[in-house]
Design brief:
alpha/beta, 2 domains, six-stranded mixed β-sheet, 11 helices
Length: about 250
């Protein structure tokens, strides 16, 4: 399969066009020759020199990531961007990125993967962002308590960091909103939805008072830890295309 077909298949499945006007990430192929042959693909959350080198060492032809290199275009190729792009070119490694589409997708998204991990059922899309959604509202098939939900989230790849909870809501947790990564800006939407808890990756100072005033439980399970699901799901998809795959795990603890 050529990179062009690889790109087109993923773009279509992830509905990149729908997010094109709202996502700062340059989704799709960020580096690569459309005519290059793709026989082996590596998957990672972040495009960094470390993951690029690891993908090359694994013999990959393309590295598929959630966080790519190009955000809002490139004015110049210097510094860190130069180093990363140079590493891709040196190893003849294509780079494919999918940011917001891989957060909110109902099948391949990070929120969808976390929903399944928690044993929950999707109720509706959640996390309105400039006309699209990047999360999910779900119901637990078996109610959680604050501590049992914190314990389950601790099974994620948190890099050894504890899962933090702002336990200002009910101890019996049945309805949950999920926005992976950096999602505390959706506390008010979670309050309006009447859920018992919001799960996201990382917090901000104002989240404490927002959650307390909303009488809402908010869990911070790690930006990286909550965003491994999307690229893992894409790996499973790409394997059905008779392409060899490898997942590169580089937890940040953040």
């Amino acid at each position: 399969m050529h990179l062009r077909e690889f790109r087109d298949r993923l773009n279509e499945r992830l509905d990149h066009e729908r997010y094109a006007s709202v996502d700062a990430s340059s989704n799709g192929v960020q580096i690569g020759d459309d005519t290059a042959s793709i026989d082996r693909a590596a998957f990672a959350v972040d495009a960094a020199t470390e993951t690029i080198e690891a993908a090359a060492a694994a013999g990959a032809d393309v590295l598929v990531v959630h966080h790519g290199i190009i955000w809002g275009g490139l004015d110049r190729v210097t510094g860190r961007e130069y180093e990363r792009i140079a590493a891709c070119l040196e190893h003849d490694l294509a780079l494919y990125a999918s940011h917001l589409p891989l957060d909110g997708h109902d099948d391949f998204g990070n929120a969808a993967g976390l929903t399944e991990f928690l044993g929950c059922e999707r109720v509706a899309s959640f996390g309105a962002y400039n006309g699209v959604t990047i999360g999910q509202q779900v119901d637990a098939t078996e109610p959680y308590t604050v501590e049992t939900l914190r314990g389950r989230l601790s099974d994620l790849d948190t890099g050894g960091q504890p899962v933090r909870a702002l336990d200002f809501g009910p101890d019996r947790i049945e309805s949950i909103a999920i926005v992976t990564g950096s999602g505390v800006d959706w506390i008010r939407e979670a309050e309006a939805a009447g859920v018992d808890a919001l799960i996201t990756g990382e917090g901000k100072q104002q989240a404490y008072h927002e959650a307390k005033e909303a009488e809402l439980n908010v869990f911070f399970a790690g930006h990286y830890a909550t965003e491994t699901f999307g690229v893992r799901a894409l790996r499973t998809l790409v394997e059905t295309w008779d392409i060899e795959t490898e997942y590169l795990d580089y937890p940040t603890g953040i």
